[in-house]
Amino acid sequence: MGNAFIADIPNAVLRLPEDDEFQSADPATGITLVTVSNLPDERIRIAITGIDAPPVADVRTTEQRLVLSVTPGITDTATVDEDSIQIIVTAQRTEEDVQDVPISITAFTDQQIEDANIDTSRGVADNTPNYTVFDATGGRFFDYYSLRGLSNFNFASRDAVGFFIDDVPYDYGGFINQNLVDVERVEVLRGPQNILYGRSAQAGAINVITRRPTNNFEFNGTVSYRSFDNLESQASVSGPIVDDRLRFRLSGSYGSRDGYYENTFLDDDVDDESGGNVRGQILWTPSEDWEVLVNASYDDYHTDGVPLTFIDSDPFELAQNINGFNDLTSNTQSLRASYSGSNLRFTSITARRYSAQANVSDLDLTTLDGGQFTSEFTSKVFSQEVRLQ
Fold it and tell me: Do 189 and 153 share a structural domain?
């Protein structure tokens, strides 16, 4: 009955110094109550109540003794939950259970992303086998990556890993190190993916899928503060504009911290960081079959100084006459229109990206005026993808 095990034993009488009933509350883990009481006609009733499910009990009688062996019951919920937990991925450009995808894949759900505190591309790599991301000179100045041994160490070569946010390709490794905010899922596909993801995916592909606008109002936000005046903040808000037809979502992040290094010549910190991003989405569903999503984002990051110095010096000090800086900005706009009929699925993704990076550093890495290294890189990319399934 419910979470209780009940058994009646005939031809038995319970004899106690006081009362005609024995009770024991919380006698063991998973058991809330054990009751043994007398019934009419020389019978004994044993009732054992479990927390989540009826316990498994072995009742034996000997001369003037009653022996109980009880094991807490296991609810079927755990089995049901385990069977019902599914991670849906779009690695093959269609929604599938990750266990049904014939690709070496590591997928992170939104809960796993939150638990592991994954908020950048480096965080994804830190939790993925065979995938490594590290910065070349500190800050956000060109991230190096390696996936299954293929990397972007050669500036003149084509990228070996495709990086996508909401199906929009991100060109050039220097632009992938940005804050990942309001993310629903991340998929890391290992092995050649050129057929579905294009020319720059011979080592694999990284898919980042952000949360979509919702039909119910919701707000989420976090703020943290740590040493070195390290401030990190994220927030998102979503809700309906027209119920069941038009929805919006707005999310963003901002962070800043002091530098970890000191320029003793200029008496100034080096490697200060600040910046963030903002993303806006509008989802229009004119009918049950059609869906139109407008997505726009802007990223702006600044790093003060590039902490390069000679190998035999203090690793947290440098002496240079130029601190330098690295600035990274980008903006992305995309339009996704999709139709899902009984026999046909059509998807069109139109995207435009503009990215710019400016870097200045001390050329001779000394206090002498030996010149400075300056680089500027801009990129404008237009992409169009059409799927028929």
Answer: yes
